[in-house]
Amino acid sequence: MPVLRDLFINLSENQLLNSAAQKYGLRLGAQSVVAGTNIPEVIKSIKELNAQGISCTVDNLGEFVFERSEATKAKERILEVIQAIHENDVDAHISLKPSQLGLDIDYDFCYGNLEEIVDLASTYKMHINLDMEDYDRLQPSFDLLDQLSQKYDNVGTVIQAYFFNAAENIEKYKNFRLRIVKGAYKEPAEVAYQNKHDIDLNFIDLIEYHLLNGKFTSIATHDHNVINHVKQFVKDHDISNDKFEFQMLYGFRKEMQLELAKEGYNFCTYVPFGDDWYGYFMRRLAERPQNLNLVTKQVFTK
Ligand code: FDA
Fold this sequence. Notes:
There is one protein chain. This protein is an alpha/beta fold. Helix content is 49%, strand content 14%. It has 12 helices and 8 strands. Strands 1-2-3-4-5-6-7-8 form an 8-stranded parallel beta barrel, surrounded by 7 helices. Strand 3, helix 6 (138-149) and strand 4 form a beta-alpha-beta unit. The chain is globular. The protein binds dihydroflavine-adenine dinucleotide. Dihydroflavine-adenine dinucleotide (FDA) is lined by residues 131-132, 158, 160, 181-185, 220-223, 247-249, 252-253, 270, 287-288.
């Protein structure tokens, strides 16, 4: 399986295939895990999830942008999404990737884009989550968060359990609303655990640490073992449901998403939309090659 994982991660970074994919719309099974290509479609999906007691975090797909015009376009789109969430009065907030807003072009340019987004969201008391990307972008993304949090309190980020420095960072950001994940990129052995067992153990430690801190924790995983562990942990430590939520990606383990919401847990679905779905979709295949079933089903049921 590690061979397949590496193959899909390499494919996720292929710029040429990415541009080709954008031309051909939602294909290869991506429509099962991407909630449409435009704002009306994503609002419709959010309304359906809200009706089932599920809140949403919306991701306008896109990453590794190297043109200023493209980053500006992404910023405008995200501002429109914020406006649409507000006008439709749906239960949703925003997740975004700093590289989509120009982190690889110029730090200050990216900060300016982000500030506009966080500023508009703050007028609607809407949370903005800075998704975390690969190791090269880790510190610059924390720097953006540090700078933004001097002015705004509606911003948080992600701690990736595969990094050796995750414990250090979770302590540093203990006063923030945090999403905790295992980590989705291919990272070198010098900076990250490579072994699933080590990652899982660190994941649990980080979740417990932040839950005990009392700041809002988003536990983002499809792993039922981790979810069951968290359910018992919050019970044992009298941690109330308003202090945490479970998060899963749109289209994955749909029954479990509904079940958790029905059991009374806060549940938030990560809802990606847009044309730039290729990198996102390839990383999902890398995490779980069984997701190839999505592809074969779509291809053979046309
Ligand atoms: P993992 O893939 O380790 O699976 C564990 C077990 O769970 C499997 O062995 C299987 O038994 C079961 N399982 C998993 N998926 C299943 C399925 N679809 N159906 C049935 N059983 C299944 N990463 C990152 O680097 N930066 C980020 O900002 C984010 N953001 C983010 C948000 C949200 C909402 C989620 C859910 C995830 C992320 N991630 C992320 C991705 C994350 O780092 C990680 O790569 C994936 O969630 C995969 O790891 P899991 O914890 O889901 O379990």
